[in-house]
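User: I've been trying to design a sequence by hand for this structure and keep getting stuck. Would you show me what you'd pick, starting by listing the structure so we're on the same page?

Assistant: Good idea, let's start from the same input. This is the structure you sent:
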């Protein structure tokens, strides 16, 4: 198992050596090339991944044929279409590697078995799920109530290591802005 993942797990909660062995046995290291899709619309997502190296985006294509980025994932973050994963329904999303990347992958069967076998791991995941839900709610509220300048400022503050790794058009999509609006906001922020 990746030393990065072991460190992450140990910092996230109390895990016994038996827990780490269960996690190692339930996981698989997967590599993805830049531009490779781990999920396409219509597939049923049957994995959860922990990013060891690189970056990913989860996005949908709207009726307007525009990409709408719902989340990014970089090192020490999790990625999946959790709706498809939990419901066993076809995904409406895509997951794409934005860089050459590596992730620790758990199949649905192994994930569910691990949660049942390791109460300590389950507690870690429950805390992460709660934090993820809260972050998602805050982002929705920000996108519907904050002006573009504030959304951009929050993004740069909250994701300082992500900002320079992804194209600006993707940041605009994530913030619910047009490219032109993001360019104007960035120019104003640089002058300010």
């Amino acid at each position: 198992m990746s030393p990065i993942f072991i460190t992450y797990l140990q910092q996230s909660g109390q895990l016994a050596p038996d827990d780490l062995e269960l996690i190692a046995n339930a996981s698989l290291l997967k590599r993805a090339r830049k531009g490779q899709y781990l999920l396409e619309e219509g597939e049923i997502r049957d994995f959860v991944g922990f990013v060891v190296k690189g970056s990913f985006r989860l996005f949908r294509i709207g009726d307007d044929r525009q990409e709408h980025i719902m989340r990014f994932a970089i090192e020490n973050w999790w990625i999946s279409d959790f709706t498809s994963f939990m419901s066993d329904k076809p995904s409406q999303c895509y997951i794409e590697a934005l860089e050459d990347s590596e992730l620790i992958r758990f199949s649905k069967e192994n994930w569910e078995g691990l949660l049942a076998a390791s109460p300590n791991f389950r507690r870690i995941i429950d805390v992460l799920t709660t934090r993820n839900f809260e972050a998602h709610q805050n982002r929705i509220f920000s996108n519907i109530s904050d002006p573009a300048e504030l959304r951009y400022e929050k993004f740069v503050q909250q994701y300082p290591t992500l900002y320079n790794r992804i194209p600006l058009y993707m940041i605009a999509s994530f913030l619910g802005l047009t490219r032109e609006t993001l360019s104007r906001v960035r120019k104003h922020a640089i002058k300010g």
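That's my pick for every position. To get oriented when you compare it with your attempt: The domain at 3-118 is CATH 2.60.120.10 (Jelly Rolls). The mean pLDDT is 92.
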